[in-house]
Amino acid sequence: MTETLGIAGSGTIASGLAVVASAGTDVVLWARSEESQERVRAAIAKGASRHEGADPGRITVTTELADLDACSFLVEAIVEDHASKAALLADLAELTMHQNETAILSTTTSSLSVSELAEASGHPERFVGLHVFNPVPVMKLVEVVFAPATSEETRARTLALCEQLAKVAVITPDTPGFVVNRLLFPYLFDAANFMAESGLEAAAIDEAMKLGAGVPMGPLALLDYVGLDVSKAIGDSLSLETPAPMAALIAEGALGKKAGRGFYDYS
Ligand code: 3HC
């Protein structure tokens, strides 16, 4: 079966996922305000123009959560905060899961407990973690996280959805940071600490890692790209201390590329 996607959220992950999914199915995306709606429409138009096969005509943007009720696979992709996600998941379940006995509910959390969010949804047997990466149209991986109660049917349909999205699924344990962030963020934070310790410029560290370790983007550019606020939240969930240079930038509102400034100046 082809899943129709209902995405709750209007940030980078939500819009990226909508663009990718639109190549093969209809998508309904919920934004929390008129302002978010305008922003996400622009992001979708930009993303779709450079993603082969994407069809923005198949994406409906709405501010009514109830408009997601006809979708077969719901994806929550809002701020990385347990209370906010739990509240929205409960609302989504209330609005859609009762009428639709086969709908699946998922979260794109990168570091929160999928089992706890599954319980918060009230439908743990039809719940799954679907951790996609930034930029969604380019990164092939999806970390798939099952809760203990996730049913066999939900598991099979989730893996099939990853294929539908032309992604590669890796099933990961429900532990903080799953696989990628668990291994990536200690390295990224180490780079920020090393910058302060060594007095090197961000560009020197990034150039060394790109040319010497073959990574597509240096660690400080990657922190900026992910966002320093999001990176801090991921670090907190991994019990990593926020590096001092990163904390100083966050305090100034320099949250990385999206804010025009972080370790680099993008203005
Ligand atoms: N769709 C959307 N955005 C795209 C894109 C596409 N098809 N192709 C490139 N991009 C974006 C880049 O982000 C950047 O954005 P902008 O133009 O809007 O400012 C721009 O396009 C750069 O484009 P380029 O054509 O110059 O692309 P590059 O060759 O420089 O590649 C990159 C950019 C794909 C981001 C590459 O540097 C890369 O792979 N970097 C590593 C990314 C990575 O490690 N991601 C994982 C982060 S961790 C994570 O996501 C976990 C989460 O929980 C935080």
| DSSP, total strands | 8
The tally of domains stands at: 2
- Helix and strand succession? EHEHEEHEHEEHEHHHHH
Net shape: globular
Strand content: 5-15%
CATH architecture of the largest domain: 3-Layer(aba) Sandwich
Q: What oligomeric state do the depicted chains represent? A: single chain
Task: Give a quick account of the main beta sheet: strands, pairing sense, barrel closure.
Answer: 8 strands, mixed
- Tally of contiguous helical segments: 10
What is the spatial order of strands in the main beta sheet? 3-2-1-4-5-6-7-8
Structural class: alpha/beta
| CATH-assigned homologous superfamily of the largest domain | NAD(P)-binding Rossmann-like Domain
CATH class of the largest domain: Alpha Beta
Please compute the radius of gyration using only Cα atoms. 19 Å
Fill in the CATH topology of the largest domain. Rossmann fold
What binds here, in terms of ligands, is: 3-hydroxybutanoyl-coenzyme A
Regions with little confidence, pLDDT below 50 for 5+ residues: none
DSSP helix fraction:
40-55%
The average pLDDT is 96
N→C terminal distance: 46 Å
Word description of this protein:
- The chain has two domains: 5-171, Rossmann fold; 180-259, N-(1-d-carboxylethyl)-l-norvaline Dehydrogenase, domain 2 (Orthogonal Bundle).
- The protein is 45% helix and 13% strand.
- It contains ten helices and eight strands.
- It has helices at residues 12-21, 34-49, 82-97, 114-121, 152-164, 180-198, 202-213, 219-226, 228-237, 244-251, and strands spanning 5-8, 27-30, 59-62, 73-76, 104-107, 127-132, 141-146, 168-171.
- Strand 7, helix 5 (152-164) and strand 8 form a beta-alpha-beta unit.
- 3-hydroxybutanoyl-coenzyme A is lined by residues 47, 50-51, 110, 133-135, 137-139, 181, 216-217, 222, 226, 230.
